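Task card 7
Instruction: Convert sequence to structure tokens.
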Amino acid sequence: MSHRDTHDVIVIGAGASGLAAATALHAAGRDTVCLEARNRIGGRLLSASTPHPERALDLGATWFWDGEERVRTLAARSGIETFDQHLAGDSLLQETTAIRRLAGNLIDAPSRRFAAGSPSITTALAAALPTGTLQLDTPVTAIRPDGEGLLAVHTPTGTLYAEQVALAIPPALAMERIDSDGALPADLVRLAQGTPVWMGAVAKVVAHYRSAFWREDGLAGAAFSRTGPLQEIHDMSGPAGEPAALFGFAHARTVRPGFEQAVVAQLAQLFGPAAATPDALHLRNWSAERWTSPSTVQHLADYSLFGHPLYQRPALDGRLHWASTETATDHAGHIEGALAAGERAARAVLAASRVPDSLRATSR
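Output:
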């Protein structure tokens, strides 16, 4: 097989789950490559830069919570600065004809954030991998058994081979973008096609301001709205309020011409005239991200499928392992769930490896 690009393991996707799997496999001595369709790592961990040094505004995953020890440990070990989510102040409820001020913050729960943005986590993971492990701009188009005990992983630029593959992208996206030539069981295909993509049907908007003026009015920057376009709003300011920002979630289907103007108008209604002039407005419509969401994403709503038992079992004769946050049995959808799923996939790969180490070096 010396003429073939063959590895012990191929990890598909360089988000938190894929990088957690790749680093664990590399640490265990496995020849691992990680293929990423985008021109960046991080997946749904994405931030916008700001004029403030080492401060960023998250456009994807934002928080982690008590009990999420994988995230906490990784951040501490990597020297990543974290801080408490701002909670102090009153919350707002926007109804059809009125805005009600509610005593205290009834929306946010105690949580922590990353001062330089959530991609700090994936940057730290990637730093542990040797040069050449990560291959960006490399979408996978097909995974098929090669007839010789390996899996053939096809990309637009060539084919790679591996004993084991860890699939660290949303299952529904994998079903739409990666051809398995009918090799996957029908019940697994149905499950994967029906599993929602975390954040996949969501648009996230971040409004960056010169100061957190709402705090001066005794507001927490937290609001619920029954009229929209943002249904849920939070303070996204950095440590000590810098950079100052509010962010909100909207249904991705509501993003159409005039959406951003409607968002600014809503923020002004809630938080006053100062909210009408953000320094910058960042919009990330995750349903339009071709390497996050399948075309069916708006119709996927059964979140009980997260962590399904079928995702805990390898497919394709024990060689294909599920590793995205949607497949985690705990904290599914969170960064913690992504790390847990990646680690679980790595353990399964190591348990399933059948080729002795003495043969690996001579099989290529």
